[in-house]
Design a protein that fits this description.
The chain is mainly beta. It contains 1 helix and 11 strands. It starts with 5 loop residues before the first helix and ends with a strand.
């Protein structure tokens, strides 16, 4: 029979002690920072971007998706897609997003399960085929329902931050939108995972 090596004998001798020590290791592991970010996805099949002055809807989209990371009550939105968007006069509109947007909790509402929220740092350029180009910047108010995990952007929502979406860089739009016009953004967004 082969003699055990010193290392093997030492391992056998210390096995009971090591087993006890190893059991305690996970409790001593460094806890995850509460400020660590969490990936989050917002998806809506009913968004609209409308100019109240003219009553023109510049976007009704089959799908709008925002992808970001949540940390400390706000979300940095770093990727987006607008799919199959058309105007109220049945022309397609293509959107280009600039920069990172933010989704913020702005305060409580009279319903304890619902918070006021906003989308800010919006920078969105739209192009309609007849030569109309416009850029929308600013923010939009909304609410977030903790029970349903739905964020609703709604121009009639509480707006403690007094945010608004304003048009600039307008060209070739035949008066349907002009520089300084406000846009109203509405839509229901499923949020995964819930905020």
């Amino acid at each position: 029979m082969r003699r055990p090596t010193f290392r093997h004998a030492l391992a056998l001798l210390l096995a009971p002690l090591c087993g006890t020590a190893l059991t305690a290791l996970p409790a001593q592991a460094e806890p995850k920072s509460p400020a660590a970010s969490t990936p989050v996805l917002f998806g809506s099949s009913n968004i609209e971007l409308r100019v109240p002055r003219t009553g023109v809807t510049f976007a009704v989209c089959d799908w709008h998706e925002m992808e970001g990371e949540t940390s400390g009550g706000s979300t940095t939105v770093y990727a987006q897609s607008f799919i199959d968007c058309t105007t109220s006069f049945n022309l397609p509109v293509d959107f280009t997003v600039s920069g990172h947007w933010s989704q913020n909790t702005t305060g409580p509402t009279s319903d304890p399960g619902v918070d006021s929220v906003s989308i800010t740092d919006v920078s969105l350029t739209g192009v309609v085929p007849f030569g109309c180009t416009f850029t929308v910047t600013g923010g939009a108010p909304g609410t977030y329902d903790h029970l349903t995990a739905v964020m609703t952007l709604d121009p009639a929502a509480p707006d403690p931050g007094n945010v608004s979406l304003v048009a600039s860089g307008v060209s070739g739009c035949s008066g349907l939108v002009a520089n300084g016009d406000t846009f109203e953004w509405s839509g229901d967004y499923d949020v995964d995972p819930p905020l």
